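hey
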């Protein structure tokens, strides 16, 4: 049973090559550096690593990383499609005994690397990637839906209509995140707080999606080391115990474009994932002290709050309004590093911030952060994890 993984593994090392808009290095180099930093953080030698997992689209193949890092024997390696789903691979590899020390790494040069200035549709065609998935664009592109902001705008508009929400409410998310980012010395994008008015007058991309609703592209590299909770006791860092990792899907689902559903103002994949996530962890939403949510598109943040059970359907935007409930010291502090306002779109960075909250080293530390949740995949196949203090 999957609940057997509860509290059996821990994150013991994290490595981050500082985010930027132009790394000036190859993805192989930055991936290698992040793994070396994670090993140093954990107090491990590189040759002790025996498993490598990654997202399919982000970074060099594990076999190349093994050669470059000098790992003698790779007992386990895998590639998955989305966010924290690779964490599940790492956890299962360690919990099952298939590996002792598993590294989940992600490196991507989305800001400086090709292709530039292309729509998602054109990018997919250029790269010959997921050709079957391209069929859906035949139904959208003639009407001007060629990029994720347009896809999400349809869902956001329906969310406004169904629950009488507005950007004046969810606009408090970037306001609070900018405050967090301004206190994060590693922030790449937002150096000072913005106001609600700043948000409302920011460039309209696809109504109601504004520029501040969209996570900027960034170059970065991150590595996370997972081992058993028992081994973690003997290592250098305070372990972040992995209470649960889960994934979720739902019928009629597509990435951001699940328009065939009866209600496109909700995130059923996230809701399904949340049920499993909390069941395996043996905790409830009320136990979570901080949530590091997928903020690639801001309207998905209140929708996630609803799907995860932090509030009722239609109440997510009101939960965020005014900002007090989602600030540090509030009911549920969100994205305490500043999220995409600080670091751009980088899924694994959310796990890093969750670990820092558990360790007590976040730039915006939450008091008594005993349980911290992180998600990715809002608007499509969803995944998440819950970490706890040892």
């Amino acid at each position: 049973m999957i609940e057997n993984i509860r509290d059996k593994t821990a994150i013991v090392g994290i490595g981050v090559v500082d985010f930027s808009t132009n790394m000036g290095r190859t993805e192989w180099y930055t991936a290698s550096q992040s793994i070396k930093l994670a090993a140093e953080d954990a107090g491990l030698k590189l040759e002790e690593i025996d498993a490598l997992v990654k997202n399919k689209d982000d970074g060099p193949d594990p076999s190349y990383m093994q050669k470059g890092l000098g790992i003698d024997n790779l007992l386990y390696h895998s590639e998955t499609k989305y966010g924290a789903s690779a964490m599940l691979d790492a956890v299962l590899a360690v919990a099952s005994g298939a590996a002792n020390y598993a590294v989940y790494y992600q490196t991507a040069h989305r800001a400086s690397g090709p292709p530039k200035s292309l729509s998602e549709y054109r990018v997919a065609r250029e790269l010959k990637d997921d050709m079957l998935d391209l069929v859906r664009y035949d139904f959208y592109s003639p009407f001007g839906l060629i990029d994720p902001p347009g896809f999400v705008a349809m869902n956001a508009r329906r969310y406004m209509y169904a629950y009488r929400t507005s950007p004046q409410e969810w606009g408090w998310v970037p306001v609070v995140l900018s405050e967090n980012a301004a206190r994060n010395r590693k922030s790449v994008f937002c150096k000072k707080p913005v106001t609600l008015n700043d948000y409302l007058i920011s460039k309209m991309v696809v109504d109601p999606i504004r520029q501040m609703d969209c996570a900027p592209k960034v170059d970065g590299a991150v590595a996370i080391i997972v081992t058993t909770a028992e081994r973690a006791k003997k290592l250098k860092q305070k372990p972040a115990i992995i209470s649960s990792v889960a994934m979720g899907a739902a019928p009629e689902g597509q990435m951001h474009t699940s328009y065939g559903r009866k209600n496109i103002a909700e995130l059923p994949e996230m809701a399904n994932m949340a049920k499993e996530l909390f069941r395996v962890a043996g905790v409830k939403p009320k136990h979570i002290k901080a949530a590091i949510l997928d903020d690639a598109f801001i309207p998905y943040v209140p929708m996630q709050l609803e799907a995860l059970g932090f509030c009722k359907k239609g109440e997510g935007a009101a939960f965020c309004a005014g900002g007090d409930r989602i600030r540090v010291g509030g009911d549920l502090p969100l994205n305490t590093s500043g999220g995409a306002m600080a670091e751009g779109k980088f899924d694994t960075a959310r796990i890093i911030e969750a670990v820092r909250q558990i360790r007590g080293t976040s730039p915006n530390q939450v008091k008594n952060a005993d349980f911290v949740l992180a998600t990715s995949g809002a608007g499509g196949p969803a995944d998440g994890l819950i970490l706890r203090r040892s």
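The longest strand covers residues 9-20. Residues 27-42 form the longest helix (16 residues).
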